[in-house]
Amino acid sequence: MGGEVEVDETFIGGKARNMHASKKVGKGYRHRGIINKTIVMGMLERGGKVRTKIIQERDKGTLHAHVAECIAEGTTVYSDEWGPYTGLDEKYIHQVINHAEKYVDGRVHTNGMENFWSLLKRGSCWYLR
To answer: CATH number of the domain that 33 lies in?
Structure first.
């Protein structure tokens, strides 16, 4: 991947409020949270393709390794302010958007990747099979 790439991660899994009570008992489900959910990292090349990968942790080593595996050095990478993304500016042109302040600052945003997650999660359950 090259040019401009948005990176983000999400949690995929059922919501406890949508489950039958017998499914929730003793399985660590609460009203919200990341327990029993799968972490998925996504990279969207603007005007191109999306790549996703299931990851075990959202730590710096894991995120940087997957970015290095898929994105060419010197590429402009857009991410949110999640701490483990710090340091990407050593090999990439790294632009960060702080979602607490705004969602778009010119070309700096992750809205394309966020849109992908939204469509994926609202779609049918084909991705869970």
So the answer is: 3.30.420.10
For residue 43, what are the domain limits? 4-128
Residue 45: other Cβ atoms inside 10 A: 18
Q: Is 100 left (phi over 0), alpha (psi -120 to 50) or beta?
A: alpha
CA distance 91 to 94: 9
Residue with tokens 């997650």: 117
Model confidence pLDDT, tens digit, residues 63-110: 999 999 999 999 999 999 999 999 999 999 999 999 889 899 999 999
Strands (DSSP E) found in 29-72: 38-45, 50-55
> pTM for this structure?
0.80
